[in-house]
Amino acid sequence: MNSRQQAILQYVNDLRRVSVADLSRNTGVSEVTIRQDLNLLEKRNYLKRIHGYAVAFESDDVDARMMINFTLKQKLAAYAASLVNDGETIFIENGSTNALLARYLAERKRVTLITVSTYIAHLLKETECEVILMGGLYQKGSETMVGPLTRQCIQQVYFSKAFLGIDGYHPETGFTGRDMMRADVANTVLAKGVENIILTDSSKFGQIHPNPLQPLKAISRVITDYRLADGYKNHLKHQNILVDTVDEDQAML
Question: What would the mean pLDDT of 90-113 be, rounded to a whole number?
């Protein structure tokens, strides 16, 4: 995927539905070129094409989600890694930002990583980092392990910190996930009483999904970007949750 196609994907995911003509004007290339780009992106399941428009869609594919806000996710992952000490055993869930965090840690720290994500385990196969992959039912779309066996595996291992992803947050619902079985995995982690850290970009705030991540008091910290609205930030702080926001220069605000 070239830089123009990355820009197209970002634009579509920001606006959810964009015409070919608008994409042509914003990228400075012809509509013919835009259609070629969209054909490629649709073939790779990054977006859908409908009657002269490109339409975003929710995908569980980690590679597809990785391309959304990629540079920002790198900065969030780098900041999250700064909170991890050499010698720690860390749990990292699944998701694109968590995958970047895992790679960053594996290349720079002496840690043991526990994960349910086969995507993350594969990503680290050439590193020296020790990886413990939890067993369970393989959810092919998201490349992660779920179900009762996964829950049992998590209950039997020790880790000092856990990094979790979310699909939504709203003051009335707290943190939520789209998938019931992945939310169950996250809730199993939250029940262990370690330092639980939500790692996500601010686009998830304001969204509500069916499956709650509970209890809210089990979450110690949220790492997100500088675009987080003050209302959400204040609500989290009132719940005794630390909020770290990372700006464009990767400095904490």
Answer: 93
pTM: 0.77
Structure tokens at 14: 């920001």
Tell me, yes or no, whether 183 and 70 share the same domain.
yes
SS3 138: strand
**Cα separation, 237 vs 221, whole angstroms:** 9
Residues 90 and 51 placed together within one structural domain of the fold: no
Q: Which amino acid is at 198?
A: I
d(CA 55, CA 18): 7
Q: Is residue 174 in a domain?
A: yes
168: left (phi over 0), alpha (psi -120 to 50) or beta: beta
CA distance 52 to 225: 33
As a dihedral over the C-alpha atoms of residue 73, residue 78, residue 83, residue 86, rounded to 10 degrees, the angle is: 130
Distance CA 143, CA 116 (A): 9
In sequence order, what are the residues at sequence separation of 6 or more whose Cβ sits closer than 8 angstroms to the Cβ of residue 135? 145, 149, 150, 153
User: Is the predicted pLDDT of residue 112 greater than 50, yes or no?
Assistant: yes
pLDDT at residue number 251: 44
Tokens of 220: 């110690």
Write out the residue range of the structural domain in which residue 35 sits.
3-57
How far is Cα 41 from Cα 136, in angstroms, rounded to an integer? 32
